[in-house]
């Protein structure tokens, strides 16, 4: 079946790995977490956003979001790679977590996410809606319960918001069919995440676009492209 | 790769709210001059210095998305992807329940706040930027 060919679980893991390779190159913060029995896993990223619009400088963040130095409890970031030009109080900082999992029932990737203040208080659904980009608000508000729902994370067992996956293959297949005419190795995780991410505050740096068509050691794509990091 | 450095290099200061800082571009490839003296457009002969200069965009439909009668447009560099999406939606008379996506490289959807000028610099060739667009019921 065509969909299997596009979105099987093996290709899911393969393209996540390629995606993460590029993320590591540009310091975008994605990593893979395996489930306890290692039979499956997911890709995840945490970033911090200042709610009141204070500007920060930070290496490798997506352009759209104002962020500052992410402080993970378990990880010591290389401090000389980051610059914090301003500080802010904890109450204004929101921690976003994005998880990319594979849905066996829908046979597509699914985006799980949650947001909380630094003191651990989760964001209310209303705050999540407010964070949806203008571009998508109208459509999402037409059928909110069809689009963003709250579900249990299949691996962590904790409540997350989910972008409902039932239409994913419908909007992704035409694009992939088209792009695979010219490049069979297009990374569908990159394509998919670039489309759904912005709706919930997740923006991919442009260099993923070039990386996605340069997999498996191809020399830099088209000669007109500027080298992105 | 600090964002401040990038915003100095690539954005016209008068139109750049913080949200429109573009994605990372290697400092070695971006022009070092501030935007008022403007990066030279790849492959064109237009005079530098006009940051409001328009770029040529060629729009191509994907799937069974309606094809626009006019495919080639001159668009201001500072127009965002979101602005372009709104424009195409109106032009194609799409209803609110339909989502429109725009792609570079036929496969990657830039974030809605991305400016077309930046995309042109990264992905343009032969004096134009080719963008594919696709409508869908993306959600639910």
UniProtKB/TrEMBL annotation, chain A:
Superkingdom: Eukaryota
Q: What is this protein called?
A: Autophagy related 10
The organism is Ovis aries (Sheep)
Automatic annotation (TrEMBL), chain B:
What broad class describes the main subcellular location of this protein? cytoplasm
List locations, semicolon-separated. Answer: Cytoplasm; Preautophagosomal structure membrane
Q: How does the record say this protein sits in the membrane?
A: Peripheral membrane protein
Q: Where along the chain is composition biased (Low complexity)?
A: 12-42
Q: Which Gene3D superfamilies match?
A: Phosphatidylinositol 3-kinase Catalytic Subunit, Chain A, domain 1
Q: Where is this region: Disordered?
A: 1-51
Q: Which GO terms describe its molecular function?
A: Atg8-family ligase activity
Keyword list, A-Z: Acetylation, Autophagy, Cytoplasm, Isopeptide bond, Membrane, Ubl conjugation pathway
Q: Does the keyword Transcription regulation apply?
A: no
Q: Which InterPro entries match?
A: Atg12, Ubiquitin-like_domsf
- Pfam families per UniProt: APG12
Q: Which GO terms describe its biological process?
A: autophagosome assembly; autophagosome maturation; autophagy of mitochondrion; glycophagy; piecemeal microautophagy of the nucleus
Domain of life where this protein originates: Eukaryota
Q: Which GO terms describe its cellular component?
A: Atg12-Atg5-Atg16 complex; autophagosome membrane; phagophore assembly site membrane
Q: Which CDD domains match?
A: Ubl_ATG12 (cd01612)
Which family does the UniProt entry place this protein in? Belongs to the ATG12 family.
Query: Which proteins does it associate with, and in what oligomeric form?
Result: Forms a conjugate with ATG5.
Main function = Ubiquitin-like protein involved in autophagic vesicle formation.
Report what the protein is called.
Ubiquitin-like protein ATG12
Where does this protein come from, organism-wise? Ovis aries (Sheep)
Lineage runs: Eukaryota, Metazoa, Chordata, Craniata, Vertebrata
């Amino acid at each position: 079946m065509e969909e299997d060919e596009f979105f099987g679980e093996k290709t899911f893991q393969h393209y996540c790995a390629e995606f993460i390779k590029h993320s590591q190159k540009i310091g975008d913060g994605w990593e893979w977490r395996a489930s306890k029995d290692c039979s499956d896993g997911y890709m995840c990223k945490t970033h911090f956003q200042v709610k009141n619009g204070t500007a920060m400088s930070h290496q490798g963040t997506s352009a759209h979001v104002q962020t500052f130095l992410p402080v993970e409890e378990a990880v010591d970031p290389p401090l000389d790679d980051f610059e914090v030009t301003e500080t802010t109080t904890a109450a204004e900082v929101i921690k976003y977590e994005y998880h990319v999992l594979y849905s066996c029932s829908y046979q597509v990737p699914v985006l799980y996410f949650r947001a909380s203040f630094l003191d651990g208080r989760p964001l209310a659904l209303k705050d999540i809606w407010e964070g949806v980009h203008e571009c998508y608000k109208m459509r999402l508000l037409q059928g909110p319960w069809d689009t963003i729902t709250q579900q249990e994370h299949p691996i962590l067992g904790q409540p997350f918001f989910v972008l409902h996956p039932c239409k994913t293959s419908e909007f992704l297949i035409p694009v992939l069919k088209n792009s695979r005419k010219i490049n069979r190795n297009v990374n569908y995780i990159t394509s998919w995440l670039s489309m759904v991410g912005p709706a919930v505050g997740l923006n991919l740096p442009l260099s993923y676009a070039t990386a996605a068509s340069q997999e498996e050691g191809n020399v830099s794509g088209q000669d007109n492209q500027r080298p992105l990091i | 790769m600090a964002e401040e450095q990038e915003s100095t290099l690539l954005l016209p200061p008068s139109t750049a709210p913080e949200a429109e800082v573009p994605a990372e571009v290697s400092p070695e490839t971006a022009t070092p001059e501030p935007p008022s003296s403007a990066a030279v457009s790849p492959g064109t002969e237009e005079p530098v210095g006009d940051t409001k200069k328009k770029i040529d965009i060629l729009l191509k439909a994907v799937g069974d998305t309606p094809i626009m009668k006019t495919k080639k447009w001159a668009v201001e560099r500072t127009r965002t992807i979101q602005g372009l999406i709104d424009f195409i939606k109106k032009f194609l008379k799409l209803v609110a329940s339909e989502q429109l996506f725009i792609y570079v490289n036929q496969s990657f959807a830039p974030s809605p706040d991305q400016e077309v000028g930046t995309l042109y610099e990264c992905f343009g060739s032969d004096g134009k930027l080719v963008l594919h667009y696709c409508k869908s019921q993306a959600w639910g």
